[in-house]
Design goal:
Blueprint: H1 5-15, H2 18-25, H3 32-42, E1 44-46, E2 61-63, E3 66-68, E4 72-74, H4 87-97, E5 102-104, H5 112-118, E6 123-127, H6 133-145, E7 150-154, H7 164-169, E8 172-173, H8 182-187, H9 189-195, E9 218-219, H10 220-227, H11 234-243, E10 248-253, H12 256-264, E11 269-272, H13 286-297, E12 302-306, H14 312-320, E13 325-328, H15 330-362, E14 375-377
Parallel strand pairs: 4-13, 5-6, 6-7, 7-10, 10-11, 11-12, 12-13
Antiparallel strand pairs: 1-14, 2-3, 8-9
Helix pairs in contact: 1-15, 4-5, 4-15, 12-13, 14-15
The protein binds ligand FNR.
Domain FMN hydroxy acid dehydrogenase: 1-380
Keywords: Flavoprotein, FMN, Oxidoreductase
Family: Belongs to the FMN-dependent alpha-hydroxy acid dehydrogenase family.
Amino acid sequence: MIINLEDLRQRARRRLPRTIFDYVEGGAEDEYTVNANRRGFERYLFRARTLVDVSARDQSTTLLGEKLSTPIILGPTGLAGLVAPWGEVLAAKAAANRGSLFTLSTMSICTIEEVAAAAPSPLWFQLYVWKDRGVTRSLVERARAAGYRALCLTVDVQEMGNRERDRRNGFTLPPRVTFTNLLDVFRHLGWVLRMSSSPRATFGNFIETGDLAKKDAVSVAGFTNKQFDPSVSWKDIEWLRSIWSGPLVLKGITCAEDARLAVEHGVQAIIVSNHGGRQLDFLPAGTDVLPEVVDAVQGRAEVVLDGGIRRGSDVVKAIALGARACMIGRPFLYGLAADGQAGVELTLDILSKEIDRTLALLGRPRLADLDRSALRMEPQPAA
Ligand code: FNR
């Protein structure tokens, strides 16, 4: 029976080969930050008010002018199409059906155009800056031509994080059957069969370029480290502005100084994110950083919290701390692995129902009623 996101996670674990599940689940090095994201939410308790009329509840909001039925958007996750065939298309359709928004990763299996053609929008495109600025420019132009609403630049992948699970598993693109994973692949023949209807098993947006045009398998970290530009700096934001006239979002801000710089560079939204603990290990939990970013921004940009959301109550806490919405990664991939598009819709339904119930029990029926007075810190044990 699936009643919460942990149930979906368990089903995803059973359905996916270990190499793919570990790719989704894993973080960098000791996975301190992966776990910190969860603990961060647990440190906040609620201050509930009673005898408030909560009969009319409303969790709808807007983000960069888009109407959202629930304050949750689907984040960019590279290779979602390895979790289920046409994974990015299915997730985008699910988001549209639930009044949410889907962000397509540069590193997707499905292409910019395939997702735009299938999903009734709204869509954001997540960009990584490539050393070859011609490639970067062409990605941005393709996203514009396909009608993506905002460009979301991820700023925390100067180099791929040290994902030790992927290294141990010998994770490559396309995924290979090796002596080590033979038994595991055999146990997941359902996945192998399902994937036979996948359009491809590598990065769709670059199928014709560079190493991918050769037929050899590439290591994901090796490929990206070769292509991504580690020299990207604030002056490139000005360059991006010159080639993209729509809203610009920065994903991966974790301190007040960078939040202020983002605002000074005319960014419309900031995603407070440690990349779900997949990049720099020992970054603090998103909830530890969010208040300082919200205070630094002072309403000049919209702030989204990303990382570790597993309950509707987490979303309510983030909004009380000043976020406008939350972004999820792994939770919708669990849904996608468990039951395709319906599984992603279920992820959003579970979270949205939990948000609704939390708002009622908290005595704050609308998102606008939430502020920091809805929270208290977990008491610390005496030293
Ligand atoms: C990601 N994430 C990510 N972020 C990004 O900007 N570009 C990308 O291509 C990817 N790829 C990616 C793949 C997978 C499998 C995961 C799990 C995550 C990070 C993602 O957008 C988001 O920041 C985290 O997933 C948020 O943490 P939770 O919700 O997974 O705890």
